Amino acid sequence: MADPAVRPSTDAPVRGTRWRTVDIVVTAVLGVAFGVVFWAWGLLWAATGAPFAAFPPGQAVMYGVWLLPAVLAPLIVRKAGAGLFAELLASIVSALLGSAWGTLTIVYGLLQGAAGEVGYAAFGYRRYGWPQALLSALCAGAMAAVLDLVNYYADWSGGWKTAYVLLVVASTTVIAGLGAIALRRSLGATGALSAFPAGSARV
How far apart are alpha carbons 183 and 166 in whole angstroms? Predict the structure, then answer.
């Protein structure tokens, strides 16, 4: 960006819609790295179930980590489909490593990644700032919550279902939304994003 002190990062130019080799490689690296994180986070999720036994929906405060690549990849690569690509690849890696949820994890990755794209698609894939990141996280979180209610918690009471949806969305908005922004800033500060517009933007 030529004048970052004046123009917000959401006005940073997007270098075309065509994917470069570096875009594919970086998105794939993010997906694989988060796939390992997903698998480890699944183990932690299982290990921390007991403290939430009295109110199972409360465990949703941990959920946001599973949506990070869907929000972060577009912030860095700034290409349509980056969030879907990264989230889906992360879910595949997690499933291959032995996710407790098996191949259903891949379905989750596909649908959560697609939902996360909405936050950027709503602005024509031309804005990549904090409003888009938070909207992306919110949409991905809402999708995740609905999938869980359909697949795992259909017998819960209406109150528990409502609480779960709100907690999942809040967790993903904070952890995946604000977390992705913080990670992009940190990576940008190291110079690792110099090949991308995100490397010079201030989100």
Answer: 24
Q: Across residues 149-153, what is the average pLDDT?
A: 96
Distances 189 to 162, 192, 203 between C-alpha atoms, Å: 39, 8, 12
Tens digit of each residue's pLDDT (9 = 90 or more) over 25-78: 999 999 999 999 999 999 999 999 999 999 999 999 999 999 999 999 999 999
| Statement: the pTM of the whole predicted model exceeds 0.70 | yes
